[in-house]
């Protein structure tokens, strides 16, 4: 009988939750990008089994695991499925109960960095939860914190403005210890966790990229790679999410250009066709992960994402940045895709 492939040989993975039948518990499915294969029990582990555990993947390859308890608090830790390493986190009290419908990331690539923070953003509400990873720093920080942020309200037709609908953070990526997010068409936001006070929200001017001619809508993803900040735009023809017209990648130029001595430097997005020996994995909640291509047996400059913009469509799409060629690899059972880079 053929020997089962090792977990390492299957990385990177697109991990998503699938509900086999209405009313049934979700099951975790994993799609191996290099092997083009679907796995249901690839990482059958105590940390992922049972109805009491909640888990989130991060672009940094670690998973946040919370063991729900009937007591006043729940255990939490970071887990690296590849190495088996665990990093304990402070217990989560009932008042900071974290819902499953969040996206999670680390402020630093290395969670053992003394300033590293675990951050979760609610997908539909302006709420976030954060905690320092290092034991001493976590204690001085006061364990887990829940923070309701205010980045304004959605601009809706007048008949829908009462009550106002608070905006939530969508596109998000961690770079050099800070969390970047797409704010408006003219600004980007940055969240600084260096202080033990509440997170510090800062903003800088940068114009959002325009859609190509004939395309009026799309979905943007922020990705950190090699300490650079990238933006990937999946553009739709007109407003039809079933018709992808273009996929473009941009890199943030933080140096800006000075038009004259009196004008401040301003960051800008610059289109790129080369992201080095890396591939990008895009998640369905406007963020992505970068992983080395050659060690994973993948072709550099490729972008992978689940075409789950429309219900019941769950095909794996591949885009070559260099040639701009697109391909559909395999149709996968509908679910919610997540990231699990190497």
Automatic annotation (TrEMBL):
Which InterPro entries does the entry link to? KIB1-4_b-propeller (IPR005174)
Q: Which residues form the KIB1-4 beta-propeller domain?
A: 31-320
Any Pfam family hit: Beta-prop_KIB1-4
Please identify the protein, giving its name as recorded. Answer: KIB1-4 beta-propeller domain-containing protein
């Amino acid at each position: 009988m053929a020997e089962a492939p090792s977990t390492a040989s299957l990385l990177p993975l697109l991990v998503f939750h699938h509900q086999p039948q209405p009313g049934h518990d979700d099951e975790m499915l994993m799609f191996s990008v290099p092997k083009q294969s679907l796995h249901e029990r690839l990482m059958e582990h105590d940390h992922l089994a049972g109805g009491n555990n909640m888990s989130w993947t991060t672009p940094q390859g670690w998973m946040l695991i919370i063991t729900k308890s009937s007591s006043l608090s729940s255990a939490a830790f970071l887990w690296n499925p590849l190495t088996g390493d665990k990093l304990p986190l402070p217990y989560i009290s009932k008042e900071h109960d974290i819902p499953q419908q969040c996206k999670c990331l680390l402020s630093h690539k290395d969670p053992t960095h003394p300033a590293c923070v675990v951050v979760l953003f609610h997908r539909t509400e302006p709420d976030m939860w954060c905690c320092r990873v290092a034991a001493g720093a976590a204690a001085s920080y006061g364990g887990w914190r829940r923070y309701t942020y205010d980045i304004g309200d959605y601009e809706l037709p007048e008949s829908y403005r009462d009550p106002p609908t608070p905006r939530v953070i969508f596109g998000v990526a961690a770079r050099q210890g800070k969390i970047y997010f797409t704010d408006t068409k003219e600004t980007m936001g940055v969240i600084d966790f260096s202080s033990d006070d509440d997170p510090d929200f800062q903003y800088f001017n940068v114009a959002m990229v325009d859609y190509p001619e004939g395309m009026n809508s799309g979905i943007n993803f922020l990705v950190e790679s090699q300490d650079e900040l990238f933006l990937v735009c999946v553009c739709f023809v007109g407003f039809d999410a079933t018709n992808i017209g273009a996929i473009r990648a941009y890199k943030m130029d933080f140096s800006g250009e000075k038009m004259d001595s009196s004008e401040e430097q301003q960051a800008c997005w610059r289109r790129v066709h080369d992201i080095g020996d890396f591939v990008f994995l895009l998640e369905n909640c406007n963020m992505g992960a970068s992983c080395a291509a050659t060690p994973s047996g993948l072709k550099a400059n490729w972008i992978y994402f689940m075409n789950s913009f429309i219900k019941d469509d769950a095909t794996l799409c591949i885009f070559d940045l260099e040639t701009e060629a697109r391909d559909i690899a395999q149709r996968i059972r509908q679910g919610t895709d997540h990231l699990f880079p190497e």
